[in-house]
Amino acid sequence: MTYKSIDEDVLIDHYVQLLNYTPSLQTDELLDHQLIEDALSNYKMNITHLNKYLRCPVTFYFEHIVHVPMAKNEYMGFGSAVHFALERLFKTIQ
Question: 35, 66 in Cβ contact below 8 A?
Fold first, then answer.
């Protein structure tokens, strides 16, 4: 195996470029402002949504305004299984 060395100045320039990266697509171009107004006309914010918005407004937009489907994580899957099992139990008991 052969190793190549990289000049320290080249490496520093590379890291500076990575840190100064700005995406070419502006976030505002992704948003449908009319959809936001319509969705929020009767909207009441809860603390979970507020925290989500404060962490990342774009994530809040796609999850709660546009309602982009999300894959369940293991905790959500477990919660769904428990709810389903309890529902079947109570239907059986009745």
Answer: yes
Rg (CA), the chain: 23
Lookup: tokens for 14? 């590379």
Domain regions of the chain by residue span: 29-93
Amino acid at 4: K
Statement: residue 14 has pLDDT above 60? yes
Residue with tokens 């470029």: 17
CA dist 83 → 74, 91, 93 (Å) = 14, 12, 15
pTM over 0.70: no
CA gap 85, 91 in Å, rounded: 10
